[in-house]
Amino acid sequence: MDDRPALARRLGLRDAVAIGLASMIGAGVFAVWVPAAQAAGPWLLGGLAVAALVAFANASSTGQLAARHPESGGAYRYGRARLGAWPGFLAGWGFVVGKTASCAAMAMTAAGYLVPEPWQKPVAVAAVLVLAGVDLLGVTRTARAATVIVTFVLAVLGLVVAAGAGGLLASGIPQHPPAEAPAAGWFGVLQSAGLLFFAFAGYARVATLGEEVRDPARTIPRAIGTALGIALGVYAAIAVVLLLVLGPTSLATAGDAPLADLAEQSGWPALAPVVRIAAAVAACGALLALIAGVGRTTLAMARDRELPTPLAAVHARSHVPYAAVIVAAAAVIALVLLVDLRGAIGFSSFGVLVYYLVANAAALTQPASERRVPRWLSGVGAIGCLVLVAALPIESLLGGLAVFAAGIVYRSVRTALDRRARLG
Fold it and tell me: Across the strands, what pairs with 11?
């Protein structure tokens, strides 16, 4: 193994779109509707619209920045280049820590759909090992696996929408009990937007792989826009059919598999177990893309000595940041075995919003010659991130602040030690 080789540009537009879609069309699309409906009630589509607007603004800023800075690291690299070392570090720290928790959540979600509880942790660990192994084989294999996974999941989601629409055409819209406005009013809509936003957040995975994309200035913005557009169309269709078939009240009180409930109520009960399998496969697809993204951001930070430098090692043959991927996989496995992740997802959400806040702030500094979207759109993205952070539950806010405080202490101590070593 050789630590010197750089990453290879092997991903085309189709590969980049597949990785972005695999990150977005994950387990969230199968499970996020219930808590979002609990927060927004009949105003669920309003929450989806807010989430889509913030996601579009963030995606526009990310694509514009990626065209100018086609390197691994995403918003970490953009923040460092345009805003300074500290903003860049905070973006990278938020991504690495938050998405590591998300990786563990995806592994446990996949296992939860496939096997009974006593077997869930071993199966989750096995999923992490297998998918990290795929990533270690090379980014083109990651892209091929992501393509297969997202094609299957999109086909199942298409069948679910068709089942719901067919039931509505055959029997008409069911009579649902009158739905009350959310108790929290507009704040409930913002909370639902915060939950739904993270179903869109996978487009950043394309940017974190920027050093492995061919013709990145052209390919990355197109891939981000294409993946986001497809995901938005899928989510909007599912949301409309869920509200019409189940109704906002029943959706808010549904179990952990609302799309399976939709299939059963639409007269397609045989589709329900297929939906569960697709949910597990989608979680694995998201996990595959997340491990790749965490590995590349860790690589970028290690190159800059923001994380331990051995994590910058790249395999001479596969051109994969193998040390970063192995450490990321080990951290995910530790979380799967030791932690109840239901509370940890809150600070993951916090971290992702900080990540995109830095990206939008970096995009605001770009001169007119580099701009592909209006400056005001980046401002909308930054404000949207702040609003959604403020709408998170208090536990998520406190957890996120604690995690970022730990990162600030780590960097401060490391910087002080490096300064002492240079002077001594």
Answer: 213
